[in-house]
Amino acid sequence: MMRFLVLLVLAGLCVGTEWQLDDPQGEAGDSDLIPKALWAEQLSLSLLPAYSLASAPSLDPTQCLPLLHEFANSSATLSSCLVSMARPVRLCQHCYKEYVQLKATMDKIGRPLQNSTVSCSTILLQSDRVQVIVELSDFFDDLWSNSKCENCLQKNSTGVLNSTSEFMEAFDSLIQCFNSTMKEPPAPSQQGNFSRVCQNCNGSYRHLNNLYNNMEHSNALCIDIEDVMNSTRTLWSKTFNCTLPCTDTVPVIAVSAFILFLPVVFYLSSFLHSEQKKRKLILPKRFKSNANVANLPDKHN
Ligand SMILES: *[C@@H]1O[C@H](CO)[C@@H](O)[C@H](O)[C@H]1NC(C)=O
Ligand SMILES: *[C@@H]1O[C@H](CO)[C@@H](O)[C@H](O)[C@H]1NC(C)=O
Ligand SMILES: *[C@@H]1O[C@H](CO)[C@@H](O)[C@H](O)[C@H]1NC(C)=O
Ligand SMILES: *[C@@H]1O[C@H](CO)[C@@H](O)[C@H](O)[C@H]1NC(C)=O
Ligand SMILES: *[C@@H]1O[C@H](CO)[C@@H](O)[C@H](O)[C@H]1NC(C)=O
Ligand SMILES: *[C@@H]1O[C@H](CO)[C@@H](O)[C@H](O)[C@H]1NC(C)=O
Ligand SMILES: *[C@@H]1O[C@H](CO)[C@@H](O)[C@H](O)[C@H]1NC(C)=O
Ligand SMILES: *[C@@H]1O[C@H](CO)[C@@H](O)[C@H](O)[C@H]1NC(C)=O
Ligand SMILES: *[C@@H]1O[C@H](CO)[C@@H](O)[C@H](O)[C@H]1NC(C)=O
């Protein structure tokens, strides 16, 4: 409300002085009135932030332009990296530098300028309803924490953890194993006999699986690792058909045994149920006769 009043007063003052300056020049000044009023409004608007921060030293908005450009550059670089590393997922390993750069830019916006005590955050982050910079920054933060990238990076995000690079090396050697085993015979049988892949790469696969389980226990999983393991498991069990069938038969036998026992359970329970009903049918007769005797005097009254 106060801001609006100040704006009105400022605009009124500016228009008033312009009008008075124009008046001596004659009636032609009237046609310039509307553009001048607009100009005055813009001027008073641009003065407003400084006015509302009366106690703090004023800040020239142009001083914040370099920071705006820096944010534009670092957010563009980060988006480009994230999208190009989206499939197969390698965000955390390849984009952490760009993310750190963006966070540093946001830090700079929040910090006071060189010869001043005010920061650009009021001008760049809080001056309008949409707040583009804040929205973008929040979006990147959400994506980063959803991906759990911190689990795969060193404390400062200064590098990739040893466990992460060890896992990626194990994955590379497994892929090498797949690749070389598949390549050896150009076409062994038209259907593709993958059992040799299962035998040759058994050790590499188990090693990768063990690493993954260890990392899961020590909470060192990020989206890169999860995606590698997910796709490797799919490859191993679906494409190469390497999972042992006996793991599948156990539940099948259990379910069939359960279903075979269902009729027995049904007949047993219905037999027991009918026995109970018989007793219930017999018992009330006695109670009923007693009750009738007890109720007789009441009913006749
Ligand atoms: C960001 O700035 C660097 C130099 O500081 C420049 O090399 C790069 O091309 C810029 N990136 C974009 C997307 O403008
Ligand atoms: C900061 O102040 C110093 C001296 O007071 C001046 O030389 C320098 O250009 C100023 N820097 C900015 C960014 O205004
Ligand atoms: C974190 O970064 C700071 C400088 O940015 C460095 O001094 C410090 O040693 C780093 N800590 C670790 C654990 O790497
Ligand atoms: C990570 O690996 C590097 C070399 O591969 C080694 O120098 C460093 O000590 C290892 N760090 C930890 C915490 O194991
Ligand atoms: C698999 O082998 C082919 C043919 O040698 C090669 O072009 C390709 O890069 C290899 N892929 C991997 C992941 O090693
Ligand atoms: C795959 O190869 C093994 C021997 O290496 C053989 O016993 C088996 O019958 C083959 N399966 C198919 C589908 O060709
Ligand atoms: C994989 O290796 C383990 C021992 O290293 C062995 O028990 C298992 O039978 C092997 N599986 C296949 C499919 O070769
Ligand atoms: C694993 O991959 C399948 C498709 O390949 C996907 O639907 C599923 O969400 C993935 N799971 C995880 C935990 O990434
Ligand atoms: C996997 O193996 C089973 C039998 O062991 C077979 O019925 C099935 O068709 C195989 N699937 C593929 C994709 O090779």
Features:
mainly alpha, 301 residues, binds 2-acetamido-2-deoxy-beta-D-glucopyranose
General description of the model:
The radius of gyration is 39 Å and the shape is flat. It has ten helices and no strands. The longest helix has 55 residues, at 246-300. It is mainly α and 301 residues long. Helix content is 72%, strand content 0%. Residues 154-156, 158 line the site of one 2-acetamido-2-deoxy-beta-D-glucopyranose (NAG).
Structural class: mainly alpha
Give the averaged pLDDT, no decimals.
76
Q: Got a strand count?
A: 0
Overall helicity: over 70%
Largest sheet: none
Order of helices and strands, N to C?
HHHHHHHHHH
User: What is the count of helical runs?
Assistant: 10
Low-confidence stretches: 4-34, 49-56, 293-297
Associated small molecules: 2-acetamido-2-deoxy-beta-D-glucopyranose
Which range does the strand content fall in? under 5%
